[in-house]
Amino acid sequence: MFNFIENFSEYTLEERNVCYLTILKSDETLTLSTKGSFWIMSNGGNAVLDNKLSTGKDTWVSMGHQSIEVQGPALVIDNPGFQCPERKFCSFDPNSVGQLSYIDGCSNSNLIDPPRNGDPCLNYLYFPPGIDQSWHTHPSVRIGYVLTGKGYACIQSNGVSKEHLLEPGKIFVLDRFTKHRFRTESDQHMTLMIYHPDSEDGPRDENNPMKSRTYLR
Predict the structure, then answer these.
(1) Tell me: the pLDDT tens digits for 104-159?
(2) Alpha-carbon separation of residue 44 from 47, 56, 74, 79 (angstroms)
(3) Following DSSP, what letter does each residue of 127-166 receive, concatenated?
(4) Residue 120, number of CB atoms within 10 A of its CB
(5) One-letter-per-residue 3-state SS of 40-70
(6) DSSP secondary-structure letter at 177?
(7) Distances (CA, A) of 70 to 8, 60, 84, 118, 183
(8) How far apart are CA 11 and CA 19, in angstroms?
(9) What is the model's pTM?
(10) How far apart are the two ends of the chain, measured CA to CA in Å?
């Protein structure tokens, strides 16, 4: 299933860990404090950390469990069942090519890395003009926030395909194992922020930067 989410204050997503989604409009302010951790995706809003304006750019993401004030448009994902002891913040150019390769000529960047293997993370996706992706699926849900450009999400169910127009500000939920692909016109690129509730990378107890550079003699 593929759903746009809009015109609501809270949306509950139950998969692995229960997540609560809140969309802020351009004139809204929200002070966050959770027993777990939250992820924030914003394109045009501000974050106030420790009484200081801390965005640096208009497009940014953040993860943490301490209090934070968010001003203006944002998608907030509150996960009370997961806690990371550190705050992470990243601002970036929403029209840049990603640092890592992705399928069919697309690219991506890790915005908020998973604290350890299997944990949630935030990623950035760049689709060049004229992209027509191969059909594919993911084993877990994806929550997307369209940043720039224009494109289409093509969803296939029971052998029938349907296209959904993606424009800046659109927020969507893609259910696990949904067969889909994204495409762009020849004169349009598209960029997204994506929340993954799990990851296949990230530090492990048996392999992490500290331990892998330690030699017992």
Answers:
(1) 999 999 999 988 898 999 999 999 999 999 999 999 899 999 999 999 999 999 88
(2) 10, 11, 8, 23
(3) E-TT-BPPPB--SS-EEEEEEEE-EEEEEEETTEEEEEEE
(4) 24
(5) EEEECCEEEECCEECCCCCEEEEEECCCEEE
(6) T
(7) 17, 11, 19, 27, 32
(8) 8
(9) 0.89
(10) 55
